[in-house]
DNA sequence: GCAAAAGTGTTCCAGATACACCCATGT
DNA sequence: ACATGGGTGTATCTGGAACACTTTTGC
C-alpha cells in the first residue's frame, strides 16, 4: 500500500492520527467501543479505534474510514471533539491526534470483528479496561461533551433507531443523565421540540397497552435548542 | 535555528501549525488581530498569527509562542477552537492547523510591530480585509463560539481590565451581543454570579456620580454558569 | 441649578417542576 | 380479572423581562 521510499522534509513533522470515541446505549448502559492492541506500544491494552491520516485525506474522512475499517460501522453521527498533542503521548514518535466522538443506535452495531486479528468489544463507561496512550483522558472529555450537549441539542436522537417509542427515548435520557425523569414532563418537552412525529404505527410488547411509534423528522441533523 | 539536514519518514507526514484568533474590544467594537503576509503564498494578504509546531512543543505552547513572537502579547486567556485540515488548505504542502481563540483587555495591547517586518493591525469583525488560507472560516467559527459562551460562562470577564465598573462590563456585553441591555437586570445578573466583588474604590469621570469599581474574584478562570 | 451617568425594586410572564389516575393489552 | 407499561392535565414555583425615578458629581 505504501511505497518504501522515505519521505523527506526540511523540518521535522509530527504524525497525525484520528481517534474516535464511539458511544452507544447497550444493556441499559452507556457503552463505548474499544479495540485491543496486538502490537507494541501498549500491546494487549485497549484503545480507541483510529489511525494515521493519509496525506490527501480529509480529517473527518480519516476518522470515518478508520472506524469502518476496524469495526464495520459507518453512516453515523460524528463530531470533532478536541486535538491532543502532548509531546510524549506516543513513545514511537510525535503524534498529534485529532479526536472525534460518534453516536450510534444499538441496532446498527456490526458484531463482526475487525478485518485484522484484533479484538473489538463494547465496554460500559464505569468499567473500562486499562487504556493505551492518553485515551482515558479523551474518553472523559467525550463523555463530558456528550452529557453537556443533551441540555441544549437534540443529540440524544442519534442513539435512537429509525422508529422508537417515547418510553425508549426517555430511557436513553435517563441512562445518560443517571436520573429518573417525570414521564409527563418529559413527553411534553420532547414533543414541544417539534423534532419528532408519529408514524401512525404501534409498538406491541408484553401484556400492556401498545405504544405509539415516533420518528425523528430530520434524523441526520442535530438541532441546537433554546 | 534549524539544521539543514532533511528529516525522513516511512510515510508522508503533514505539517502541523497553530493559528490564533485574538479578540479584543476596541473603539466600541469587537476587533481581532491580523498580520500582513510578506511572502508567498497569499503575499500581501492578511492572516491569523500562527506558525509551525516545533517537534517537542505542546500545542498550546506553540499557539502562545507564535502569538508572543508576532505580537508581543502574552499571559492571556486562550482556548482550543477546532482543527482544520482540508487537504488543499495550503498550496505548499499538507497542513493541519490546530486553531485557538484568545481574549484580551484592550489595555494589554502592545502596539509594537512584530519582530520581523510584517505589519500587524486590529480589524473590526465586519470590515475584515482579504484573508489568506481558510482563515475567514476560522474567524467565523471563533466568533460563533465566543458569542455562544457568553450565555453560559463568564468568558466576557476576559475582556475586562483588572478593575472595571459595571457600566464598562455592560458595554462589553452590549457590543458582543449587538443589543442594548437593561441596566438593572444586567447588574442583578452579574452580581448574582458571585464572580465579581467591589474593590471599595471609585471611578470618577465627567460631570456625574462616580462609579463603584469591581474586580473579578478569580480572573484566570472562566466559570461555566447555570 | 443643570447635565450626565450611577445606582436601585417591584410586577409580570413564561417555562420548568411536581404530582395521580385511567387506558389498552396479553395471559 | 389482573398485571403491566402507555398515556394524559393542572397547579405551583422560579428565574427572566419589563419598567422609572433618585443620587452624586463637575461645571
Automatic annotation (TrEMBL), chains A, B:
Q: Which SUPFAM superfamilies match?
A: Nudix, Winged helix' DNA-binding domain
Write the protein's name: 8-oxo-dGTP diphosphatase
| Phylogenetic placement of the source organism | Bacteria, Pseudomonadati, Pseudomonadota, Gammaproteobacteria, sulfur-oxidizing symbionts
Similarity remark: Belongs to the Nudix hydrolase family.
Q: Which GO terms describe its molecular function?
A: hydrolase activity
**Nudix hydrolase domain segment(s):** 11-147
Superkingdom classification of source: Bacteria
Query: Which cofactor does this sequence's record say it needs?
Result: Mg(2+)
Key words of the record: Hydrolase
Amino acid at each position: 500500500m505504501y511505497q518504501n521510499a522515505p519521505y523527506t522534509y526540511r523540518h521535522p513533522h509530527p504524525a497525525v492520527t484520528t481517534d474516535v470515541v464511539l458511544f452507544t446505549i447497550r444493556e441499559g448502559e452507556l457503552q463505548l467501543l474499544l479495540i485491543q492492541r496486538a502490537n507494541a506500544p501498549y500491546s494487549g491494552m485497549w484503545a480507541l479505534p483510529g489511525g494515521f491520516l493519509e496525506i490527501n485525506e480529509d480529517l473527518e474522512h480519516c476518522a470515518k474510514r478508520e472506524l469502518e475499517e476496524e469495526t464495520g460501522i459507518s453512516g453515523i453521527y460524528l463530531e470533532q471533539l478536541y486535538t491532543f498533542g502532548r509531546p510524549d503521548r506516543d513513545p514511537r514518535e510525535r503524534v498529534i491526534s485529532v479526536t472525534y466522538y460518534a453516536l450510534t443506535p444499538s441496532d446498527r452495531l456490526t458484531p463482526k470483528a475487525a478485518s485484522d486479528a484484533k479484538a473489538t468489544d463494547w465496554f460500559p463507561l464505569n468499567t473500562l479496561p486499562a487504556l493505551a496512550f492518553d485515551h482515558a483522558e479523551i474518553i472523559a472529555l467525550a463523555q463530558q461533551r456528550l452529557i453537556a450537549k443533551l441540555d441544549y441539542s437534540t443529540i440524544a436522537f442519534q442513539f435512537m433507531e429509525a422508529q422508537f417509542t417515547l418510553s425508549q427515548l426517555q430511557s436513553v435520557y435517563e441512562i445518560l443523565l443517571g436520573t429518573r425523569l417525570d414521564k409527563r414532563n418529559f413527553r411534553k418537552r420532547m414533543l414541544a421540540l417539534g423534532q419528532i412525529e408519529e408514524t401512525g404505527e404501534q409498538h406491541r410488547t408484553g401484556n400492556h397497552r401498545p405504544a405509539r411509534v415516533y420518528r425523528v423528522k430530520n434524523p441526520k441533523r442535530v438541532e441546537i435548542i433554546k
